[in-house]
Amino acid sequence: MIYKNIIGVDISKSDLDIASMKSVKGYQMYKSINNKTQILQCFKRILKKEKLKKEDVLVVAERTGIYTNPLLWSLVEEGYNLWIECPNQIHASKGFSRGKNDKKDARMIAEYGYRHQDKVKLCELTDDNLVSLQYLQSERELLKREEAKFKAQITDHKGYVKKGDYDSRKKRYTSILVEIKTSLKEIEKEIKDIIKSDTKLKHIMTLLLSVRGVGQVIATDVLISTQAFTKFTTARAYSAHVGVAPFQYTSGSSIRSRNKVSKRANKRIKRNLHMGVNSVIQAGGNFEKYYNRKLKEGKEKMVVINALRAKLIHIMFSVVQNNRKYSEEHVATWT
C-alpha cells in the first residue's frame, strides 16, 4: 500500500519530535510530551491541520524499548498505521551525515518510511501476558548479572586482602545475594503463574518442554522472544535472530570466506541453547550420533554444536507448528 502522508517520530524519554512529510524535502515539525493523552491530542491536531485521514497516514518510529510504549498504546488502539522499525536498520540506510539532533532524526525516520513502504510491518498490540513475561524476563536477567558480580567479588578477593576487610565485605555481599535469590524466586513464580493462567501459552510450553534439551529457561526464552511463535514464522528466521544460522561471505574471486554466523544475535538465548545442546549430547541419542559422526568426518567441534543448536530450534518450531509433542520414537534421518 502507498500512503499519502508519512510521519516520522523520534522518541525520547520525555517527549516526541514529529516530522510530517509533505514531500521528499518538505516537512512540518511538531512536538509532544511522551504520554498517551498528549500523543493522541497531538496527532488529532496534525490530522485536522493537514486535512488527513488516519487510514492514509503511515507513522514510523524507532524501537526504543519501554519509551516506545505510550506511542504504541495510543496510536494502535485508535486505528493508526504504526510501523516501529529496528533503529539499526534505519541508521544503516541513512548514508553519510554530519551532526545530530532530534528534529533531524525525526525527518530521517520519515524519509526512511517514504523510501521503504514496501517493507512496512504494521504494529499490533501484543498480548498482555506476553508483555508481562518479557518485562519479568528482563528483570530476571538484570538480577542474574548482579548476582554473578557479587559472587565474583566474594570469590576473587579471598586471600588477597586483609581478612577483616574481606570478612566485612563478604558479610554485606552475602546478605545482598540472599535478597537477590529471594527476588529471583518471586520472579520465576510469577512467570510460571502467568503461563499457567493462559491456555495458549501453557499449551506451547508443554510442547516445547517435550523436546530433549529444552528446559524451563530455554522454553520461556523462546516463548517470549518469538511472541508465542507469531513474530518469527520460520525456524531459519529465528536461527538468524539467535545467531546460529550461517551466512555466505564472498565477493568476486578474491574474497572466499567460509560460511559463518553473524555477531548480530541474541547472545543470551544462544548461550542457553548451547548448554541445552551439550546436555542432550551427553545424554545420548540422535544428537550424540550426529555429533560423533561429524567429528569423525573432520568437522570442528563448535561447527557441529552450532548445527545442533539450529537443529534444536527447528525441532521446537516443528512441534509447535504441528501441534504435537516431540517423540523419541521418531526416526531422525539427519543423524
From TrEMBL:
MF annotations from Gene Ontology: DNA binding; transposase activity
What is the annotated signal peptide range for this record? none
The protein's superkingdom reads Bacteria
* GO BP annotation list: DNA transposition
* Transposase IS110-like N-terminal domain: residues covered: 7-156
**Which part of the chain is the Transposase IS116/IS110/IS902 C-terminal domain?**
206-291
> What protein is this chain from?
IS110 family transposase
